Amino acid sequence: MPLPIEQLLRDYISRPGYKPEKAKPLAKALGIKKQRFEEFKEKVDQLVAAGTLGRTESGKIIAGKGLLKGAASSGRQIVGTLKRTAAGDGFVLPQGANREHHNVEIFIDSSQMRDAQTGDTVLVEFMAERMGGGRRMGRIVEVVERASTTFVGVYYEDDGQAWVMIDGKQFADPVWLGDPGAKGAQPEDKVVIDMVRFPTPHRHGEAVITQVLGARGEPGVDLLTIIHEFGLPTEFPEAVLAEAREKALTIDEEVFVDREDLTNETIITIDPVDARDFDDAISLHRTDDGHWHLGVHIADVSYFVTPGSPLDVEAKRRGNSVYLPRHVIPMLPEVISNSLASLQADHVRYTLSAFIEYSPEGIPVHTRFARTAIKVKQRFAYEQVMPIINNPKKATDVSDEVLKLLLDMFELAMILRKRRFAKGALELSMGDIELEIDKEGRVTGAHEEHDDESHQIIEEFMLAANVAVATFLDDRGDEFVRRVHADPSEMKMKAFGEFAASVGHPVKQVQSRKELQALLEKVRPLPEGRAVNYALLRSLKQAVYSPEVAGHYALAEDQYAHFTSPIRRYPDLLIHRQLIGRITGTRTYSVPRGAELAQVAQHCSDTERRAEQAERELKKIKLLEYLYERISEEFDATVTGVDRYGFFCRGNTMPAEGLVHITTLRDDIYDYDRAGHCLTGRRSGRTIRLGDPVRVAVARVDIDRRELDLRLVEGPGPSTRRSSGPKKSGSKPGRPRPSKGSNSGPPREKGRARKRRGH
Q1: What does the pLDDT look like over 527-543, one tens digit per residue?
Q2: Which segment of 140-144, 239-243, 388-392, 465-469 scores lowest on mean pLDDT?
Q3: Using an 8 Å Cβ cutoff, are 576 and 370 in contact?
Q4: Are 437 and 325 within 8 A, CB to CB?
Q5: Which residues contact 438 (CB under 8 A, 6 or more apart)?
Q6: What is the mean pLDDT of residues 429-455?
Q7: What 3-state DSSP class applies to 419?
Q8: Does domain 150-216 have CATH number 1.20.1290.10?
Q9: Rounded CA separation 368/550 (Å)
Q10: What letter does residue 337 receive in the DSSP assignment?
Q11: Quick one: where's region Disordered (predicted)?
Q12: Domains 150-216 and 629-741 share a fold
């Protein structure tokens, strides 16, 4: 029988009209006395961990999975997250529910939307009627928590009044600002606003200007736009900077206590040519019995960032570093990230090392961990490594010891890689295109990046260290932040199997990683190879941080955690503290447990997604600015998505993604096949499928709404007119305007080299 506090919580939160509250006011509303408040908080944490209750980012207590199931069956109210469509309607995903489950989202008609926006946490009341297929319908009772009240847009004046047209497609109409000239804003300026009253179908929104970023289209304004739009923290508080400076005074390169001295070992780093935060280094040697002895040495950030300190609080808030084109927003102040903790050559640096012994066949036989001090002998860029390995006799600028280390690293890494794929690991071949950006931040071109074996060397060793650490902690029964990649749903994999069969590559057991691996290898050189890779990517789930024991599907590993990048990822820092606590036996390095650990993991997943979205949006803006002066130019592309209203495609050498709307396909009437990821012409039988090569032309560019409309020039199959990218128009870059090009078809409905390590 539930404890009294638990029963009180269940009854109160599941009743109709419950308005989510934080712990203290909720306890007061339930009549919990002060002396029982700690017991109350502990019970709330337990119920959150169990999924019975949930907690918003601001700490408000809401119904979780357990209460939601009962609420849904009895026709009551539920709390969920709203996603609006371009038409103004929306869908609410209940807290704790899985979007992949059939009809789990609740449809909200635009007339029942109130002033809720995409991303808001909302309270929904079920309606009696249902949609076709049985999907529930509802009305929004209130907004529990706003996803954001800060937005960026273009300022303009009309009839003596000031307005802002907010970037993107979230708001269809301008928002009223009142009298002109606030903060010195001029027409066509980009401004940051705080929404005072959100718009509804019956009234304009109201806002106030909080900052003027500069004239639209001026260098640097696009970067500021993204920073404010996503709420990316930039400046560090003075207390954080002061603590970082103090830490700089504690480093003694001559004397170090309680650390293994590895400063005379041959240790190297391999990183992108423009990297500044070197957080991993490698040592390796073989013994007479043929065994390999690998050392993966990771910057000991925990030495500088202690639990609860200003540095720790800020690092946790940021969650990770953010890598934007030509700009990095670090998780830690640069005096630490680019200096004190960075494993620079010829400097003593504190590290946490994973020592893994392998048999000659690459089977791990022993692992240990230690706090160490190292001195990197030589730094390499990726581009330097393979020429040395392929032609060791011409390597005159490296010592014999370093040369032997590189050759041994290559040999072991290839052994580990072969074993990993034999175990069932998956690797998609999608290609990676890097933008070329000038000193004013404008795109001038692009080039395809090729990851050679030098990247694979480091990747294999980082994966090995991550697995070793996770296995070590799991063997001791520890709860920790894992890197989880859950198995794909049967429904999605069944659909993928049907798609693969439709392009001539049936898969007998679509849930078998080895069969998928064989399929990917088979289609790698084939024209339909890109289509199969895209389809499989869309069938897989995203990797997240979680304390749940769920394994890593793509890596075919039961135990996996992020350990190798604590300079730029907070979960890695937590793993370091937990590992040091284990190997030293001190509680100084304790980490969160239970519901608190789950919250930190979720927060880090959220900040990771935010960083990815910010990078993607800034690249999109820069590409749209580039294409704005290139209307009607043609380029080769690949179909990346198919829907009932058309298909999306991405340039092969200029990675802009746009929509070819179905209404512009005038040669036939096309039907949409969801399972086959394709559009098929009724008369011609012509098929446009996910992954198909096409040739398209730029039809319309709207930078502020971030839309690119394309026109199909030549359909699937080899094009008779090839070029490496858009034809040169000779036009000079001009100041971007909101939209340029034809208006055919309705609107769309839908820096630096990164260290891509750790999955």
Answers
A1: 788 888 888 998 999 99
A2: 140-144
A3: no
A4: yes
A5: 444
A6: 84
A7: helix
A8: no
A9: 24
A10: I
A11: 712-759
A12: yes
